[in-house]
């Protein structure tokens, strides 16, 4: 796909449906190994809509959500929480891009936009994210942008199970913004 005009803007409640729908579809496509069939089929959209309704109508003071549009069409989003963890720093909590736009570099550009916000929030903090062990493509993407695997933990899923996840980190937001562009 040729991406002509890519725009980034802060998310508003008007973006709720696009964000919740993409988040749910992304989980359906990538997490079928760790989330139940019932949850992915019947509950994920409702649950993600509730999460995003809360986040977009009553945002925390350390939260920032950015959406990407290509030629005016919703293409993806990222959310970040500054100073989220005492040791790991600022978390990139969600990064999702519609499959039709993955070759445009939107994921990298969203990460860099979030890193710029994190740098303004508190430049002294490291930047991190958590990625499920089953999402090897994401791990390769983050590694290609200089992230290092620093810890292993478990996510307590909405299905009442546990899934292995890895913590990837950059020593600072600036370390991410200085990485070369990756078109994924």
Textual characterization of the structure:
The structure is a single chain. By secondary structure, the protein is of the alpha+beta class. The protein has one domain (6-177): 3-Layer(aba) Sandwich (Aminopeptidase), CATH 3.40.630.30. The protein is built from 5 helices and 7 strands; from the N terminus they run βααβββαβαββα. A 7-stranded mixed β-sheet has the order 1-2-3-4-5-7-6, with helices on both faces. A hairpin with a 2-residue loop joins strand 2 and strand 3. Helix 1 packs antiparallel against helix 2 (37-57). The radius of gyration is 16 Å and the shape is globular. The model has no long low-confidence stretch (mean pLDDT 92).
Structure characteristics:
Aminopeptidase; 5 helices; alpha+beta
SSE map:
Elements: E1 6-10, H1 16-30, H2 37-57, E2 63-70, E3 73-85, E4 89-97, H3 106-122, E5 127-132, H4 136-144, E6 148-156, E7 162-170, H5 173-177
Parallel strand pairs: 4-5
Antiparallel strand pairs: 1-2, 2-3, 3-4, 5-7, 6-7
């Amino acid at each position: 796909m040729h991406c002509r005009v890519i725009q980034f803007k802060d998310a508003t409640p008007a973006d709720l449906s696009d964000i919740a729908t993409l988040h749910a579809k992304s989980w359906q496509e990538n997490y079928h190994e760790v989330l139940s069939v019932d949850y992915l089929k019947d509950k994920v959209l409702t649950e993600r809509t509730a999460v995003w309704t809360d986040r977009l109508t009553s945002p925390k003071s350390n939260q920032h959500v950015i959406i990407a549009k290509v030629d005016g069409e919703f293409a993806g989003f990222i959310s970040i929480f500054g100073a989220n963890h005492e040791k790991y720093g600022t978390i990139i909590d969600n990064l999702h891009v519609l499959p039709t736009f993955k070759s445009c570099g939107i994921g990298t550009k969203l990460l860099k936009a979030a890193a710029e916000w994190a740098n303004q929030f508190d430049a002294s903090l490291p930047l991190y994210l958590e990625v499920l062990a089953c999402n090897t493509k994401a791990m390769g993407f983050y590694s290609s942008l200089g992230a290092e695997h620093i810890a292993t933990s478990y996510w307590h899923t909405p299905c009442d199970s546990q899934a292995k996840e890895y913590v990837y980190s950059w020593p600072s937001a600036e370390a991410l913004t200085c990485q070369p562009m990756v078109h994924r």
